[in-house]
Amino acid sequence: MKLGLEGKTVLVTGASRGIGRAIAEAFADEGCRLCLAARSASGLADLAGQLSSRSGTQVETLAIDLAERGAAERLHARFPK
Fold it and tell me: How far apart, in whole angstroms, are the C-alpha atoms of residue 37 and residue 16?
């Protein structure tokens, strides 16, 4: 289903598995540029590779635990828009 989101940038947290991963996959299928964050660096790298090769979308990742002090600020610094 095309929702007119092609070229939009989407930030997905908890992206390495479960619902976050499914959300990232859905936005990739829509042609969105993805900024993915999760605690698992290897899970993010795996997903980024799969999504890039499957849909050709641009994927950036950040391994981060958002429960840590200052993590939200680091996330914003990495993906400001």
Answer: 8
